[in-house]
Amino acid sequence: MLGVFRVLCLFAVFEAVCLLDTGMLFPRESSSREVKELNGRWDFRADKSPNRNQGFEKAWYKSRLAETGPVIDMPVPASYNDITQDPTLRDFIGWVWYEREVVVPARWIADEGTRVVLRVGSAHYYSVVWVNGVKVTEHNGGHLPFEAEIGSLIRKDPTQPCRITIAVNNTLTLDTLPPGNIQHMDDHTKYPDGFFVQNIYFDFFNYAGIHRSVLLYTTPKAYVDDITVVTDFLDNTGLVYYKVSVQGAATATLKATLMDKNGRCVASSSEPSGVLKVVDVNLWWPYLMHENPAYLYSMEVRLMATDSRSTYEDVYTLPVGIRTVNVTSTQFLINNKPFYFHGVNKHEDSDIRGKGFDWPLIVKDFNLLKWLGANSFRTSHYPYAEEILQMCDRHGIVVIDECPGVGIKDIRSFGNSSLTHHLAVMDELVRRDKNHASVVMWSVANEPAAEMPPADFYFKTLIKHTKALDPSRPVTFITDSNYARDRGAPYVDVICVNSYFSWYHDPGHLEVIPIQLKTQFENWYGKYQKPIIQSEYGADAVAGFHSDPPVMFSEEYQKAVLQSYHNVLDQKRKQYVIGELIWNFADFMTVQGITRVVGNKKGIFTRERQPKAAAFILKERYWRLANETGRLPVWTKYPCSF
Ligand code: GCB
């Protein structure tokens, strides 16, 4: 009976309530698809006119940017804020303009049966894109990709170079995610003419610009537009439920082939949707839970279609990890085995690049995660680059995937237009990340003002919508420790609680931690009987500050906070606490303010990724937890292997 119910749930994924009508598959090369990265140096100008609107008034997109004013060099991908010595650009609010000319391979233009797609991995926050002066798309929101088909446009005049102009505006409003608002200061005895600030209610620098790769890729005219995969297993047989959607062809034949790591076909089908059965399945297991973690199959989808002009073949290959996720009132189960999150919260943040995508940083961070013995992280407080999730799939790092619903503190941000946008962002997030084995839970928000009356309807709707989008994964939202005020908790599957005892509450008093943390867990569990993750805890430590006895901001104090939390976590993890995520993996930049000394220093690593004393405490603990709760891979005998 349970099995039948589960299968019905899995099929419900394919009937999801998503309003988006196209897919957003990660661009991959194949025998039918080419990818051309447009990363590197772009021309750039910030529109510093008083209303920030000169670029639109003077139509900067119509000619080369250098013809309408001065331009500077700007790397893509990167935040623009820390690239120059200009303080007004670091703190700039408004439209900035990027431009680059591209040589498009002649065969892409010559072949009318080729779609040419321009894709932006993410740009913060609002973007408008033109090609040769013609607007091709706009996108509302950072952290998620958007694209436009530009083939017909570049074919109009193949002798012209392809000039791509992207205008990006980082202004936040009460309806954006995260929300913010602009405050004009009109008192001329205090402020210069036209002075304004952007108020935000979240604790990281609002880096802006083109943060992820811009690229062109091709597909044939008839193509695989989307693939949805949900997995299960029964005894030794893996089950891959899949659905392929096709665009550009009225009828097409399809072949879906699942291959193991050695490229051997283990199952195949000619249907656009169905189930692939894998005998003697290798399940996808988290890092440190199994000696052979992160096993990935490859699902090759091959499409053939014919129209009056031509025959098209498209090939797309998707990595697939076969695993299940379930939640009981006291446990989080992966492949029906209890999973304990011992991990971190991260940020996309580093010096010079800001939130710009950077492979060396990403690989370094994964090496540090594995060194630490971390088996999981939360994408606090927004969706991370797809390449990061691919690394999680490859290494078995479990992810709580969070949308940018952070800092929702103003009652006006609980209205209909905010909610509509929040639902749309969840649609885009689930569409992008649904096929990652590493993603085990959606987080719809972080510490909203959940005590406000409209929060009840808002979160009920949001969580219900997210569950309908993806019935195969649990949903949470991250709350602060005050259980009495909470209006979202009744609807979530897992309670995620942030608390900073002896830091924001009773600063300097380490002795309050045992009692306050115990009370926190007992209140939440008593009220909701749902498993709990300590989704944030920690303390600032300025690397190199030492004090014994410990005082706040010293490395010793950070260590002591962690140790006190760990004592209570060790009691409660035997009952219903299913995880602990330190705040934060690394120091990160914030707005300037009297509580932040060049950023938030709660990292156990510095911003340059060097360990503080707390990193060693955590490493010792995480490996101990792994030894107790999981199975260590054979190679961990050789500590230098990561
Ligand atoms: C929190 C927030 C996080 C902050 C952190 C802090 O509760 O979720 O964004 O950075 O506290 O250090 O204050």
TrEMBL record:
Pfam families: Glyco_hydro_2, Glyco_hydro_2_C, Glyco_hydro_2_N
Stated regulation of activity: Inhibited by L-aspartic acid.
GO cellular component: extracellular space; lysosome
Protein keywords: Glycoprotein, Glycosidase, Hydrolase, Lysosome, Signal
Residue stretches making up the Glycoside hydrolase family 2 immunoglobulin-like beta-sandwich domain: 222-323
Residue stretches spanning the membrane: none
Record's catalysed reaction(s): a beta-D-glucuronoside + H2O = D-glucuronate + an alcohol
Keyword Metal-binding tagged: no
Sequence ranges assigned to domain Glycoside hydrolase family 2 catalytic in this UniProt record: 325-626
GO biological process entries: carbohydrate metabolic process; glucuronoside catabolic process
Domain of life assignment: Eukaryota
Keyword Hydrolase: yes
Subcellular location: Lysosome
InterPro entries: Beta-gal/glucu_dom_sf, Galactose-bd-like_sf, GH, Glyco_hydro_2, Glyco_hydro_2_AS, Glyco_hydro_2_cat, Glyco_hydro_2_CS, Glyco_hydro_2_N
Signal peptide coordinates: 1-16
Domain Glycosyl hydrolases family 2 sugar binding: 36-220
UniProt GO MF annotations: beta-glucuronidase activity; carbohydrate binding
Top enzyme class: hydrolase
Role description: Plays an important role in the degradation of dermatan and keratan sulfates.
UniProt subunit comment: Homotetramer.
Protein name (Swiss-Prot/TrEMBL): Beta-glucuronidase
Gene: LOC116058101
